[in-house]
Specification:
The chain is of the alpha/beta class. The chain has a single domain, classed as Roll (Nuclear Transport Factor 2, Chain: A), CATH 3.10.450. Helix content is 36%, strand content 38%. The protein has helices spanning 3-28, 31-35, 53-66, 151-156, 167-175, 190-203; strands at 38-45, 50-51, 72-85, 88-103, 106-123, 126-143, 185-186. Strands 1, 2, 3, 4, 5, 6 and 7 form a seven-stranded mixed beta sheet that branches.
């Protein structure tokens, strides 16, 4: 392996570590560590948020505090695809969010599938995320306790205002005060095409 290939391999390991650290820090409530994964001028787009890392950390803290006892969440990421060109990189990975929420005393399990698209830049020798976009694919909702009577809750659910692909995901967030972002990105949408075009321009240095 020549020097250039070795450097590229090291870069990819460092990038994957940053991406994994961002997820673990978010789920664990390690807010300083989460902020350190992003450049200060970065932007993030999720199902419920669009803005800066500082704002994202603050809102994530509020979301975690809002959870009741017995609730939890975990993001699982895999299938990393990383392209590096000098001090710029594009990285994608599959992400599954598992979340348990208690809504109107009913324990519910939510699963959301998405693709995380990240643009990264190495500054002062350190890789950090400059742009993050979640590209949402589908979701589902299940009763955590089949013995619970949830017919009243289900009958009152109005999903008509949410994207069909992740309607349960958005309904859950809205129920605890985090309505869907107007910039939400869905698989196969014009928004996805835009962010992928931006990614190609980023890695090309434009």
């Amino acid at each position: 392996m020549d020097g250039e290939s070795f450097r590229a391999a090291v870069d990819k390991v460092e990038i994957e570590n940053v991406l994994s650290r961002a997820i673990v820090a978010r789920d664990s409530g390690l807010w300083a560590e989460l902020a350190d994964c992003y450049h200060p001028d970065a932007t993030l787009t999720t199902s419920w948020f669009a803005g800066s890392p500082q704002e994202f950390v603050t809102k994530s803290q509020e979301m975690k505090i809002a959870r009741q006892g017995g609730e939890s969440q975990k993001h699982m990421s895999s299938n990393y695809w990383i392209e590096v060109d000098g001090n710029r990189a594009v990285a994608e990975c599959d992400t599954i969010l598992y979340q348990r929420r208690i809504i109107e005393s009913v324990e519910l399990d939510f699963t959301t599938w998405s693709r995380r698209l990240q643009l990264l830049e190495k500054r002062s020798g350190t890789w950090r995320i400059w742009r993050l976009t979640y590209i949402y694919e589908k979701d589902r909702m299940d009763l955590a306790r089949p013995d619970q009577m949830a017919s009243r809750l289900f009958a009152s659910m109005d999903l008509s205002n949410y994207p069909r692909q992740i309607r349960f995901h958005c309904w859950r967030n809205d129920m605890v005060g985090f309505p869907p972002s107007k910039t939400i990105c869905l698989k196969g949408s014009e928004k996805e095409a835009e962010v992928r075009t931006e990614a190609r321009r980023w890695i090309a240095g434009r």
